[in-house]
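pls design
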């Protein structure tokens, strides 16, 4: 994982940030913050949401999302484990945190969080109806922000209340907070969370080939993708859990899909303390699934072909195996025996769920540039 470089601030930086959000040249090899002169449009604030200065908040959230100063050693940012080009997921099995420590799970994509019944209000954010993280240990997107920051493995800040003081010492933050909060440059933990949330909720993927097809463009999918769609929805009933045809791309709740006969990670059971929830994990969204390998909570499958092999003939007889994955006549795990031809068509369809605009949109990219 690439480490975010420490930020070098030079004389005259604040004035440039206030006037046009472009800072002056930094010494060769240094990192500088570069934002557009005109605030990026993350939301239509006049008709979409009532929160004032929402685009300025999202802009500030973008800076915070990519800033390593939110970690104890100034080296790990939120973006370290959620990479734009990978659908805001991670491409290694166990994400690497503070001082090279490995987390126990693969980082999920954070795109389309507002699809989980999250909505904006005058208080900016309400809780989603669907729990977050693989195990559902959090229910609020706004509260989610502090989870990795205060995790001793991920970002290493023992007490998030120290962040306002730490960020206040960086000259570019007071002007950004002032712009987001009507001239008030005060930095607080709540404002930090609110602005990162504004950025996260803005990361939306709705421009896939399938989205175009569902919107009425019958030419959006080719013949192989259409055949894969039929297999996905009918023959193998993947749609039962991954609601792509409704545009949702996932099902709320937690499921044991038979990864292990004997649990090494009890998932949602660690949150609920109920043995009936052992081995159950959140159903992930399939948006940008072609970009978010490796797969499953522990990144055990390197490719989509590996995932299909699991459902084809690898489902284990785990205690809480979902009933859809059991053979009704034998009560044993289903053996779908997916043919190689069907796999190719299914993967073609899954590839159609990629939003290439989102993963290349400059307003979601790293604003820190190295000379």
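designed seq:
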């Amino acid at each position: 994982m690439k480490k975010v470089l420490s930020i070098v601030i030079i004389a005259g930086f604040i004035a440039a940030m206030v006037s046009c959000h472009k800072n002056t040249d930094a010494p060769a090899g240094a990192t500088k913050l570069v934002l557009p002169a005109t605030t990026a449009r993350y939301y239509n604030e006049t008709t979409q949401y009532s929160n004032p200065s929402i685009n300025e908040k999202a802009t500030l959230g973008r800076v915070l999302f990519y800033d390593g100063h939110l970690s104890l050693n100034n080296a790990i940012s939120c973006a370290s484990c959620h990479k734009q080009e990978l659908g805001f997921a991670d491409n290694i099995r166990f994400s690497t945190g503070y001082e090279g420590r490995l987390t126990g799970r693969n980082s999920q994509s954070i795109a389309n969080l507002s699809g989980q019944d999250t909505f904006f209000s005058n208080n900016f954010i309400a809780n989603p109806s669907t729990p977050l993280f693989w195990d559902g240990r959090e229910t609020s997107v706004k509260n989610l922000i502090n989870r990795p920051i205060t995790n001793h493995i991920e970002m290493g800040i023992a007490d998030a209340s120290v962040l306002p003081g730490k960020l206040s010492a960086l000259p570019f933050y007071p002007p950004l907070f002032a712009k987001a909060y009507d001239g008030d440059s005060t930095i607080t933990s709540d404002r930090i969370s609110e602005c990162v949330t504004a950025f996260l909720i803005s990361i939306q993927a709705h421009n896939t080939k399938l989205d175009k097809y569902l919107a009425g463009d019958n030419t959006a999918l080719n013949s192989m993708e259409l055949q894969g769609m039929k297999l996905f929805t009918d023959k193998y009933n993947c749609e039962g859990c991954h609601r792509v045809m409704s545009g949702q791309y996932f099902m709320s709740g937690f499921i044991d899909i038979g990864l292990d006969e004997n649990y090494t990670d009890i998932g949602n059971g660690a949150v609920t303390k109920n043995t009936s929830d052992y081995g159950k994990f959140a159903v992930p969204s399939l948006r940008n699934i072609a970009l978010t390998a490796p797969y499953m909570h522990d990144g055990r499958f390197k490719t989509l072909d590996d995932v299909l092999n699991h459902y084809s003939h690898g489902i284990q007889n785990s205690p809480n195996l979902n009933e859809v994955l059991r053979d009704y006549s034998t009560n044993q795990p289903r053996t779908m025996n997916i043919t190689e031809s069907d796999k190719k068509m299914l993967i073609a369809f899954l590839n159609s769920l990629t939003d290439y605009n989102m993963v290349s949109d400059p307003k979601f990219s790293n604003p820190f540039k190295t000379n």
